[in-house]
Amino acid sequence: MSEIYRVPILIVVAPSNRSYFLDMTPGQSLIEFLLKSGFDVYMLDWLPPKANESHLRLDDYVTRFIPDAVERVLRDSGQSQLSVLGYCAGGLMSVCYAALYADGPLKNLVCLTTPIDFAHMTLHRNLVDPKHFDVDKYIDSLEGKLVPGEAFFQGGALLRPVSRIADQIKLWDNMWNDEYVKQYRMFDRWVTDALPMPGEYMRQFIKDLLTGNRLVKNELVLDGRTVVIGNIRVPVLHAVAEHDHITPRGATKPLIEMASSEDKEEVMIKGGHISVATGPKAAHRLWPKLEDWLGRRSE
After folding, report:
1. pTM exceeds 0.85, yes or no
2. What residues are labeled active site?
3. Is residue 2, in this structure, part of any structural domain at all?
4. Could you read off the pLDDT of 19-68 as tens digits, one per residue?
5. CATH assignment at residue 121
6. β-strand 225-226 against 221-222: which pairing, if any?
């Protein structure tokens, strides 16, 4: 470790994701890399919602849970500022936090494959098209009004219907490659290990974002306040994946365009939605960029 950086990092992943995918195994862990690079690292590790938490909305995650985590990080680290690193929907929530708390303790914002313009989330929008999907009827029919994690796994599978079969064929072709089998088992476990979500969160996500596309229009209201991306003035880095089937290029593009920050950068990383952030390829493609970018802004 050649440097020790003053500004801590808070990592925010999608609330439907278990966070261990960023800390899978030595040598392929983003958490390990950042710690060894000299950063203090904290993470919001989401738990499955309880039956009495089905009422939670995006408002709660952005205006209650993230600010509470920020306060705890600052108190524990003894610092007055921090960087927030958000992945996918965790990046979306981090953007909303940065916009609503523009005068708060945020020093740097890093987003990975973060959707902003949902008009380009074509496949997702097709799955929840009101013409053939009644979100209210679906949510209200669920036991405890909690969306099961299986729904997220199956929904993701529908985006690339033959990918599971193709992956299994590749597994058979590499059955005697111990490292390949290890990687497959680790990531397959994570992909199928999605967390359930509060029904009201999903109702709001589908209506306000997937079909309403309110964020990019500066019309998303959380806890009575309008989320205006132009309010973001801190340094912003957005890393997007070249081959991202979950968050297409058009969906990620507006963040850098809309943020008012003078210091802002988008970097295109070769890889897919998951491999851009974690695993052996990310260790060479993205992580050195993160260390350099954050390091120069964390002293």
Report:
1. yes
2. 88, 244, 273
3. no
4. 888 887 888 899 999 999 999 999 999 999 998 999 999 999 999 999 99
5. 3.40.50.1820
6. antiparallel
